Amino acid sequence: MHNLQATSIRYLDGQLWVLDQHQLPHQESWLLCQSVDDMVNMIQHLQVRGAPLIGIAASLLLGHLAASQSYTLEQLREAAETLRAARPTAVNLMNNMDSMLAVLHTQGIEYLPQEAERLFNEDVALCNAIAQHGAPLLGNNSNVLTHCNTGSLATVGVGTAIGVIQAAHAQGKNIHVYVDETRPLLQGGRLTTWEMKKHDIPHTLICDNMAALLMREGKVDAVLVGADRIAANGDFANKVGTYSLAVNAHYHHVPFYVVAPYTTVDTECPDGNGIPIEERAAAEVQGVSGHFGSVNWSPEETPVFNPAFDVTPANLVTGWILDTGVYTQSDVASGVLKAALQSDG
Ligand code: MRU
């Protein structure tokens, strides 16, 4: 495979390296990924995370294993199935593994590296297309609120929601971003702040429960979030807390946009009820852990509910910013969104 380089992942001289997102923003350390077990572990522990990125990372690993010429077709098929099951909600992982498996079965092992490279380059192009479609929606002097992390740490390109924000900023618009900290794993507080600083985009970190107050005070002009899976009717799953942002935005008449590439669309899933939601360990809610160590603040064995994602119904969405364009509620009513979701890609 050729050398490939992104903010969050690198393929250099036959080795696959992943930026350890656990250590950010305090330390930029790179982990060598050599096996399916390594990749599954990194995905499950969110060292590599974000819907598009986990799909591309798993594809690069498969391409790398195929290039080593020491795996049979059956071993590579099993590897793809194991990677496919590493996390349940982001459909990019399943869609990318399906592309890799289709190439494996129709063309053979030697074509896997080039398919992995194609998926990598495609994600870069999809992010750019999304950013170009979305940026005009943000006016000069806009305050944008975002949740979780959807930038170059979650994709191999400029990102989805953050890509749109960055493009608007690059067009010279005065954009200020409210960054939800995103409990329990703090992707906003740790990662989006890191990206905002890197791009020199004015931003303010808030706790998740402060968004309604800001909206009530008229301080939010738009909410932009990413997605882990968009169902055929436009309902979508994203990081837990997205649904309450959508309800708050609807109540306060703040435009609410979901931003994603076609690889996040699940055409087989009719609506949000069919989206599998990952539940994670109690410890993530009982305390917090990271570069600094770990703190547990609740009494031992406190019962916990910890869904990693929630589902936002399509009727709360002002617009779907996809790589093919921006779709609105009237596109839902006329079937245009459904057609776009089904034909995308
Ligand atoms: O659990 P994570 O950090 O992988 O969750 C990520 C999100 O929910 C993102 O918003 C989503 O994957 C879109 S990333 C472009």
From TrEMBL:
Q: Does the keyword Amino-acid biosynthesis apply?
A: yes
Which pathway, per its entry? Amino-acid biosynthesis; L-methionine biosynthesis via salvage pathway; L-methionine from S-methyl-5-thio-alpha-D-ribose 1-phosphate: step 1/6
Q: Which InterPro entries match?
A: IF-2B-related (IPR000649), IF-M1Pi (IPR005251), IF_2B-like_C (IPR042529), Initiation_fac_2B_a/b/d (IPR011559), M1Pi_N (IPR027363), NagB/RpiA_transferase-like (IPR037171)
- Point out the annotated site residues (description: Transition state stabilizer): 148
Say which enzyme class the record assigns.
isomerase
Q: Where is the active site?
A: 228
Write out the entry's keywords from A to Z: Amino-acid biosynthesis, Isomerase, Methionine biosynthesis
Catalysed reactions, as listed in the record:
5-(methylsulfanyl)-alpha-D-ribose 1-phosphate = 5-(methylsulfanyl)-D-ribulose 1-phosphate
Q: Which GO terms describe its molecular function?
A: S-methyl-5-thioribose-1-phosphate isomerase activity
EC identifiers of the protein: 5.3.1.23
Q: Which residues form a coiled coil?
A: none
The highest taxon in the source lineage is Bacteria
Q: Which residues bind substrate?
A: 49-51, 87, 187, 238-239
Q: Which family does it belong to?
A: Belongs to the EIF-2B alpha/beta/delta subunits family. MtnA subfamily.
What the protein does comes down to:
Catalyzes the interconversion of methylthioribose-1-phosphate (MTR-1-P) into methylthioribulose-1-phosphate (MTRu-1-P).
Q: What is this protein called in UniProt?
A: Methylthioribose-1-phosphate isomerase
